[in-house]
Design the sequence.
């Protein structure tokens, strides 16, 4: 790994109205360049990466190949739309809510509480979801 390891862009960034997708793409590019922060490397292709690919109806490995081949976020999204599942707008809204609220009063709440305890954010009452946690943990504000 290079000396310039960095976190990926915000999980709240959007491509075509879909949050997290730019972060997924950024993580792949940073990993390929040897610059992805070690804290993020174990989650490549799982968690929110996997859920986003499942929502789009594409395999993570196939999307990764498009991005490594040079596709921009917009081109990768266009490829996913062409090769994945077409979903109605209401399903997209449900998925966006799912992503943004994961860890808030659901089956991942205990895991979010554990993550907060493992970090310097134990006393942060404003962290309600994993997206909140990502933003704070990587030095961004809510």
Sequence:
């Amino acid at each position: 790994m290079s000396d310039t390891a960095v976190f990926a862009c915000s999980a709240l960034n959007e491509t075509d109205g879909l949050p997290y997708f730019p972060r997924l793409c950024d993580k792949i590019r940073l990993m390929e360049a040897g610059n992805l922060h070690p804290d993020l490397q174990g989650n490549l292709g799982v968690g929110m990466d996997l859920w986003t690919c499942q929502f789009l109806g594409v395999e993570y490995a196939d999307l990764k190949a498009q991005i490594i081949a040079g596709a921009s976020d917009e081109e990768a999204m266009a490829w996913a739309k062409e090769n994945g599942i077409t979903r109605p707008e209401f399903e997209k809204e449900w998925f966006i809510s799912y992503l943004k609220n994961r860890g808030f009063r659901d089956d991942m709440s205990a895991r979010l509480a554990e993550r907060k305890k493992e970090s310097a954010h134990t006393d942060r009452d404003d962290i309600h979801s994993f997206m909140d946690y990502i933003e704070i943990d990587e030095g961004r504000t809510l």
